[in-house]
Design a protein that fits this description.
heterodimer; A: about 110 residues; mainly beta; six-stranded mixed beta sheet; five-stranded antiparallel beta sheet; globular; B: about 110 residues; seven-stranded mixed beta sheet; about 55% strand
Chain lengths: ~110, ~110
């Protein structure tokens, strides 16, 4: 019930295309859904996040779509660029003992071909 | 600019040795998290603190791992004795308040031979 399932495991997209990564969760106690981007040798960096009372959030080329009834959310990267090549992690969190406890998906390795 | 710092960045040690990893959270952040990343298990939350008080360490192997915050600018994760299965990248993250936005450090890559 604590798991967050992420797909696909890897994704190759042509430059200028749309990259789509999907996640699903079971626990309805989750109340915050961030996406993190990680480059090799670096720590994950917060990219964009959404709360379950909103169905979509857009920041630049990055959009989260959230379907509360289906318990699914996805990241869309528009006009994908080679610099977007990285590993992307979805996550879900809930407040536990005074702090947000994050559960991460397994990650998607995204490659943007020039 | 404000960043989480971690030391050492790389550590190679022999099985049975003690390992201590250090983290300096972003100045002013009062919530600190420790994560472990492996290919098999992905990113796992080990423990977290708020205002230096431990909140939850249920993600840590209790018998060999310990986490502390001696002061507001230093968090430590200790493994004693270390085992080959502890080989992983250990990340520290910090945030404000409940830690909605968590800022990760560059990690400590630990190899136990």
């Amino acid at each position: 019930q604590q798991q967050v399932k992420q797909s696909p495991q890897s994704l190759i997209v042509q430059k200028g295309g749309i990259s789509i990564i999907n996640c699903a969760y079971e626990n309805t106690a989750f109340d915050y859904f961030p996406w993190y981007q990680q480059f090799p040798g670096k720590g994950p960096a917060l990219l964009i996040a959404i709360r379950p009372d909103v169905s979509e959030k857009k920041e630049g080329r990055f959009t989260i779509s959230f379907n509360k009834s289906a318990k699914q959310f996805s990241l869309h990267i528009m006009d994908s660029q080679p610099g977007d090549s990285a590993t992307y992690f979805c996550a879900a969190s809930m407040l536990r003992r005074g702090a947000q406890k994050l559960v991460f998906g397994q990650g998607t390795r995204l490659t943007i071909n020039p | 600019d404000a960043r989480v710092t971690q030391t050492p960045r790389h550590k190679v040690t022999e099985m049975g040795q003690e390992v201590t990893m250090r983290c300096q959270p972003i100045l002013g952040h009062n919530t600190v998290f420790w994560y472990r990343q492996t290919m098999m298990q992905g990113l796992e939350l080990l423990a977290y603190f708020r205002n230096r008080a431990p909140l939850d360490d249920s993600g840590m192997p209790k018998d060999r791992f310990s986490a502390e915050m001696p002061d507001a600018t230093l968090a430590t994760l200790k493994i004693q004795p270390s085992e080959p299965r502890d080989s992983a990248v250990y990340f520290c993250a910090s945030g404000l308040g409940e830690g909605w936005e968590q800022y990760f450090g560059p990690g400590t890559r630990l190899t136990v031979t």
